[in-house]
Amino acid sequence: MGLVSWTYLPLRVDVHSGTRTQCRWLQTWLAVKSRTRVSSYFVLVVWMYLHPRIDVHSRTRTQYRSPQTLLVSFVFAITTFN
After folding, report:
1. Where are the beta strands (DSSP E) in the chain?
2. Fewest C-beta atoms under 10 Å: which of 11, 31, 42, 43?
3. For the chain, what are the domain ranges?
4. What are the pLDDT tens digits along the chain (82 aa)?
């Protein structure tokens, strides 16, 4: 299981930086990053701190979270499944 189990979650992450919004599919991003587990943690940390606001969309609701809170959630979930 591990990090690969996260690749099929129905979540969407909207990254807001300045005046532009970039939509990224979390499952695609994690599918690529799951091949290199150690570097994926580093990339996740850098990515979270580069963007001021992250909107996490599930099928029923939208949550507005700070990058630090989202990072802690992902690290906890990843270490739980290992």
Report:
1. 12-17, 20-25, 53-57, 62-65
2. 42
3. 2-76
4. 344 434 444 455 555 554 444 444 444 555 555 554 545 555 555 555 554 455 555 555 544 455 555 555 555 555 555 4
